[in-house]
Structures are given as C-alpha cells and as structure tokens.
Amino acid sequence: MKTLSGISVSRDIVIGKALLSPEDNLEIPRYSIAENMVEQELRRFVEAARGAAAELRLLKEDAQGISREQESIFEAHLLMVEDPDFHYKIKARLESKYENIEWIVWEISRELSQKLALSPSAYLRERASDVSDVSRRIINRLLGISRFSLAELSGDVILVAHSLLPSDILAINKSMVKAVAMDTGSRTSHTAILARAFGIPIVLGLSNATREISGGEVLVVDGEDGKVVIDPDRETLKSYEQAMERNRKASGHVHPLKRLPAETLDGWKVVLNANLEMPEETEAALQNGAEGIGLFRSEFLFMTPGQSTEEEQLAAYNKVIGVMGKRPVTIRTVDLGGDKLLPGFQGSGEANPLLGWRAIRFSLSLPEMFKTQLRAILRSSVEGTVKIMFPLISCMEELEDALALLEEAKTECRKNGHGFSEYMEVGTMIEIPSAVILADILSEKSDFFSIGTNDLIQYSLAVDRGNEKVNYLAQPAHPAVLRFLKQTIDAAHRRGIKASLCGELAGDAFMAPLLLGLGLDEFSMASPSIPTVKHVIRRIRFSDCQELAKEALACTACKQTNDLLADWAKKNIKER
Questions:
Q1: Cα distance between residue 318 and residue 309, in whole Å
Q2: What fold characterizes domain 27-143?
Q3: CA-CA distances (angstroms) from residue 100 to 37, 47, 80, 90?
Q4: How confident is the model over 482-522, as pLDDT tens digits?
Q5: What CATH class is the domain 266-572?
Q6: Which positions are annotated as active-site residues?
Q7: Would the pTM count as exceeding 0.70?
C-alpha cells in the first residue's frame, strides 16, 4: 500500500481500478538517419501535421453546441499545428541533427513546454500543456497510434494522468470515469473548475502518480483529505468503504433538499447561488437548486479574437437570463490579463503578471472595449434581474473610474435607443488586502460586496496558487484570511449592503458553518456543491455557528482552526 498526497478538489471518496492514460507511458523512439533521408522525414512530418489539423477540424465540427471558449481550444491547437515558425524549427533541427522526425518533434515541443512552464504567467504555464497536446497528436500519427479517447471507455475507471486540458474534461466519458488523479494542476485551474462543474471527483498536484501507478491497481481517491491510496490493505479499504457508505446515506438526504431553502434549524436563511464558466452550465445550476447566478465569468467571450462584439455578448448574457427567469444573474466584467491574456496582448512582457495589468486595470486601460461589455450587460438587464460587479478593485479611484464608464455606457445606450434597467445593482469584488482595509469606504459606492477568495487567499498569503511547490500554503482557514472575511462582511453590514462569497471556498461544506457564523449573506459556488452545502446548513443552528466563528477568530494557526472545525462538526451537525 502506498499513499500519495495532493490537492483536494471535491470531498468525495471513490474506489476503483486505475487506468493510466496510455499517452503518459508512450516511449518516443530515437535513432540517427542518413542525410539523404531528411526530405523523406520532412514529408512524413508535413503529412502528420496535415492529418492532425484535419483531425482537429473534425473534432470541432463534431462537438455540437460547444461554447466559444471550448471552440477557442480547437482553434488555438490548429494555429499551433500549422504555425510556420514551428515547421521551420522542425526543418532546421532535422537538417542539423539527422535524427528521426518523431524525436525531433518531441524534443522541440519539450523545450518549448519547459520554457512556458517556467513562465511567471500562469496563463503561459497552462499553454505548456497545449504544446504537449499538439505535439503528441502529431507524434501519434507519425507512429501510427490511435489517440487515446476519453469518450470511448468500456468500463468504470479512475483515470490517472500527468495532466488534462479543459478540452479533455469536456470530452471525458462522465459515466465511466468515476474520478481523476493527476500529477499537475491546482484547485483553481480551469481543469479543476470544469471537473467540479461536471461533478467529477478529482485530486490534483500528486506530482508522481503516473510514475507510481502502472494501471490496473485498486485506488482510493480520497477527496476529503486530498490523497490517493494505491492498493490499500484490507483494513484501509474497509475503512474507506464505510466512509463511502456514510456519504451515500448523506447524499440520500441531500437530493430531496434541492428545492428547499438553505435555512438553519433556528430559522436563519442564506442564499445559495451558482458560479458559471459558460452559458451551457445554466440548466445544471437550476437542477442543483441554485437560487441565482452569483458569478458569471465572462472571459470565454474574449478568448477568441473577433468574437466579443456587443451583440454576441448580449446574446450570451440573454441565454443565461432566459433560463434563470426572474432569478438574479450577476455578471463579472471581464477578468483578463495576469494569467488569462487576451489573444493579441500576450506580448506585454510583465515580470509579475498577477501583480500587473489584469481585471479592472485591464478594462480601465481599454475604455472602448470596456464600454462595449458594459453596454451589452446594461441591455441584457431588460430581460431579467441582472447585477454587475467589478473585479480586483484595489482603491476608491478604480471603483469611481469604473462607475464613470458605466454612466458613459448608459448615455450611449440611451442615444442608441437601447433600453436597460435603471435599478441594476453594481457590486465590488473584494480580492485584494487593500480592498478589505478600505471596505468601509468602498461600501459607500457599492450595492453589494462579492468576496473572491481564490485571489484574496493568494494575495494575502503571498502564495502563487498555480505553483505546486507552495500551493499547499493557500489555506482558507489561515487566521489572516478569516479576519479579512470578517472585516469585509462587517463593513458591508454596517453600510446595509449584502456580502457574498464567490470563490471556491463557498462550495466547501466543511467551511460552511464558519462562513455562516461570520455573517455571510450569500454563497456562490460550482452548482454540484449546492445540495451538499444546503444539507449541512439545514442541520445546524445559526447561533452555534456564531459561537464557532468567535472561537475560530481567536485561533492562531491553520491546524488549530481545522481541528476546531472538525470537532465542532461532530458535536453540532444534527439530523433534522
């Protein structure tokens, strides 16, 4: 028996047989060639690249109803396959090294991937896996190997992989893949967010799972502790089977609660909303009992050049509003820059992009682009209850500048004869320590606060959440984080406005009693988490949660807080 530690993304426990992605075990042959074979090898490469491009186009055509964000993945891969600079490097290396083309392709792609992986930009680090994906597609054709299909599995498995792209998660056979164990990744990566949205248990950041697991072993994916147990002994297996049975019984209580309010035993109600990555997730949000959309991430509209016109944005917003009806939909203005660069702007050359030109700073520096989005959001407000919020506000000047551009966008809508709601709420995202400290001031011009704990934890604790060497330090139970949460919530309530939380922390049922006790009004999370969080809320008392919050705020270390939460749950979570 062997245990690997990683990052928990869901609190599910799954037992099953390991399937190692064949592509993670593929050996690339290497041998010398004669000078007169260079042209022949080059022709093989060109044919393989053309075949890979045709394969990508076919995949794109077959993927019915995909969003622009998903479509952009295929387009980005096509650009790489057909990139003249990539072809030139292959030809030059082939003519200088006289080695077989499979090895040349692998060697060049590895060099490029390693360079991107060392980038300070999380966006560029994610592109490293795109390069690996494209090169593997070409190499497979050169070797005559059919690409491993995540959609065509014949039995239940726990998929073990070095890395998976968001496109892999979209293509995965969700009925057969019971869980995923992955070497790379972070809790807030796009792969993790999509896995949560589709209800796939996943443990990330295991580092060496693909080296320790050969396939066929019995695995336990322990999402509660962020562990993967390989070939558990009889006692360990029995313990996990008992835990799964407890979870199964608990889920039996969860399902009937989907349409009931999130109300404590002593009558305290909170709102549970869903986070959306793309419009196609809206129906699932309703099915899971979402009372509204607390965070609609709009970045997918901008990731494909030329696809972010006002009318196209309006259509995407209206698609969500049409499904949600009168339920509120909160649209975050685009959070580009940093680790999510807009195509055409990647050359900014920032040494520390997450501390640089991103989110509201990006939008304010491009006022016409920003106003295009603001007009689309304003126009969508006539179709339902729409709220707008600005990301990464660090000072009052930024909020005032954003509000001034919103007023300009309203004037332009009136001039163009486009109606909008004059009563749309405008909120501020609290994601930076300076915003917490200035929360009392920012509340003067905010209709609500939305706390983005993904960034707040990162900036408060100086932890790069995409860095596997330090992301274990990104602890939501850190005393500083808890005090920041309390300070923000209290500032909102003194002003008479609501405080919501839309970071990944909102979907953590383990933390729900504490967040409730801190005074949080609304939770917004990946929709599959809503029933479980509601189940916990309906089994506890708000008065007990308030006492828990007081004790937690007095803790001086993460372990102390986590131990407190675990002990409190055993004593206070009651069956209704």
A1: 14
A2: Enzyme I; Chain A, domain 2 (1.10.274)
A3: 9, 15, 21, 11
A4: 999 999 999 999 999 999 999 889 998 899 999 999 999 99
A5: alpha beta
A6: 190, 502
A7: no
